[in-house]
Amino acid sequence: MVEPAGMEVDSDELRHAGNRLLEASDAVLRASSGRLCSGADSWGSGQAGLAGGQFAARFAHVTRSLADELDDAGHQLRLSAEGYDYVDADVATRLTGIARDLGLER
Description:
The chain is mainly α and 106 residues long. The chain has helices at 11-32, 47-101.
């Protein structure tokens, strides 16, 4: 738990939030994996069919992009949690060494 100048970071909560974002990314991909505008073919070869196909392609691109962003954010939060844990452990080790060098060990 890092607490510089009144700041507190709960790495478990940070990791949990990252996991939730990864789950959200998966959910977005699942929700968008179905064929959007599946009836567009039946709209004919005119403007309606063309518009339906274009919309479906754009929507698929946007949902894939959103899922990628959520996935990236989830991994970044998890990496941040690991970074905070590493810093906490490193500081504790260094302070223990300093205390030992100064003869202040309990």
